[in-house]
Amino acid sequence: MALFLAVAPMQALRLEKINFGDFSNWVTRDIKESAVLGGKVKTVYAIGPAKHIRGNVPYTNQGGSPWATSNVYAKVSGVVKASNTVSPAMVGGSRMAKLSTKMEEVKVLGIINLDVMVPGTIFLGTVREPISSTSDPYKKLSMGIPYTKRPKALVYDIRVDMPNVNTRIKSTGFGPKKTLKGRDKAEVYVMLQKRWEDAKGNIYAHRVGTGRERYSSSVPLKKGHVLPIHYGDITKTACYKPYMRLLDGENAYYAYNSKGKLKPVHEVGWAPEGTVPTHVLVMFSSTCGEPFVGTEGLDVYVDNVAFGF
């Protein structure tokens, strides 16, 4: 049985801000790409206290920031490459996080010219740098942070700029680009989990609460948008969509176990009513599809992320 919480207007909610969720401060990183790629210094941003990091230094979350991004320092077969699809942007006088889907060009001395489709994503968690391969990107992310409260909603400011096309591009950098039918969508989700670990270090979870929505068209700046969190088994309710399903197998996200190893989090069921979570996952992304698939020019602006009670 699912327990539903009727979400009041934002003005009636008590807001608990997520650290650095106002995106007013950023870490600026200067990463020098390999000489075979031209040897340029690329600026890459992270969400955290105002700080400037020079040099090819693997990044760890700074100043207690819980946020990670799709911006990465990669070193594949000794070749250094940086990617930046999340950056600060001024909108209506406020600094927001801008998430952009981009075609990242990789040119090697003018001989090899590869294009990789990269979405802009921010989430609560960490990324282990340097990235050493382009395969299985979710296996390089630790999704979620410890959290034991039961909020009614995720509240945030959002704007979506959506190109008016009904196709997406798949470009992995290997082989030709492919045009796929179907409109891309920006996505926001919040998930509460109760996790546990077995003797072998495998991680399991029950889904405690779910809030997830997708945007298929442009959205003008909306302040204080309320995304309700629904508790318990929601599969037989009107709010349920297939993309709210439990995550396991190929769809599982990863997290560090007690031994410091990244392991898939197997969601094996819906939590009983009243369950207290152990972790929360929050993600904003300029795509909702598979890795290396997206629509270039799809931009999402996010600000003032908080839990509502």
Give an overview of the whole structure.
This protein is an all-beta fold and 309 residues long. The protein has one domain (12-308): Jelly Rolls (Sandwich). Helices cover 0% and strands 51% of the residues. It has no helices and 26 strands. The chain has strands at residues 15-17, 26-32, 41-47, 51-54, 67-69, 72-76, 79-83, 86-91, 94-100, 102-108, 112-118, 121-127, 141-143, 145-146, 153-161, 167-170, 178-181, 186-197, 203-215, 219-228, 230-231, 254-256, 262-270, 279-285, 293-294, 299-308. Strands 5, 12, 13, 14, 18, 19, 21, 22, 23 and 24 form a 10-stranded mixed beta sheet that branches. Strands 1, 8, 9, 15, 20 and 26 form a 6-stranded antiparallel beta sheet that branches. A 3-stranded mixed beta sheet has the order 3-2-4, with no helix packed on it. A hairpin with an 8-residue loop joins β2 (26-32) and β3 (41-47). It is globular and about 55 Å long. The two termini are 22 Å apart.
